[in-house]
Protein: AB hydrolase-1 domain-containing protein
Organism: Citrus sinensis
Amino acid sequence: MEKAESIPIDAEKIRCEFFNFLRSKRSAEVPLTVEHAQPVLNPLYQDDKPPTNSEAMESCPKANVENFKKLLKEENLYLYTEAGEQGRLPLLILSMKESDNENRPAVVFLHSTRKCKEWLRPLLEAYASRGYIAIGIDSRYHGERASSKTTYRDALVSSWKNGDTMPFIFDTAWDLIKLADYLTQREDIDPTRIGITGESLGGMHAWYAAADTRYKVIVPIIGVQGFRWAIENDKWQARVGSIKAVFEEARTDLGKSTIDKEVVEKVWDRIAPGLASQFDSPYTIPAIAPRPLLIINGAEDPRCPLAGLEIPKARARKAYAEANCSDNFKVVAEPGIGHQMTPFMVKEASDWLDKFLLKQ
């Protein structure tokens, strides 16, 4: 295989190929339809233990708004992105009740594995207080799109067995493209000021949703990595461990005694075709240029090793320099931090989104 750093980037071609790939995997397309929903009183978390409050999210900068809770507007909606049960995308949207008719910036927030949109509420409230329309979603097989604590795990195994769905990243990327259809049609949102961010799995969702240029500012947190690099450099174990059941199933089916890099490669090719090849970070990260992109990782994160970002980072810097907007690209690695989102990361993301989306 030709070395990634030597292959020229055609951003438009990469985006089109990815979009056409996602479309080819859809069930019947449906008209863009929105329905009202009810607030979720008992959110479903698929963790072994119910999660506690997130210090990182609680630390997000907030505006001091008198009577904030009374002035907060909450919308619970379903957006239909394709036919079938998983084609119903649950939305939680928070904003301030304001009398002026000026449209506002929007930010989409994406949760981590086994969480749900309700987990994101501290972030949604903080951004709403600062004048944003803040949108949280349930990714595929999570939250309202799950029926038990094993729904996501079972979907991954089914994807390996049947190859007819892409629950790891790509099906939710399609949802986010359809979400952009909806957000750009809303009269209260400025379509030129829509950002997207997420944590871990949500960071990967934000990264791949950036194939849609309607997302103007992108901030993946502990999500960007080099999948091919990890296979070639024997650094795949931590990422595999986060969704181990599907790899164990594949190991058994392939007659292996242990999970090895052949198993890893075959699983990625089956459940997310192109993830470790043409849609990997050396190609898709530079394709985001010239839009503002902030990548935030932990310097010691075994799931997103910094060494695996050297090629995509170098190629992205080149792409942004060629577009005369080098300041629109930044990589932050917090020292001493593994795979966790921290208050520092939340503040960095907040400052970056404010810089490019809020009117100064």
Summary: The beta strands are 33-36, 72-80, 88-96, 104-110, 133-137, 189-199, 217-221, 293-298, 329-334. The radius of gyration is 19 Å. The CA atoms of residues 149 and 269 lie 26 Å apart.
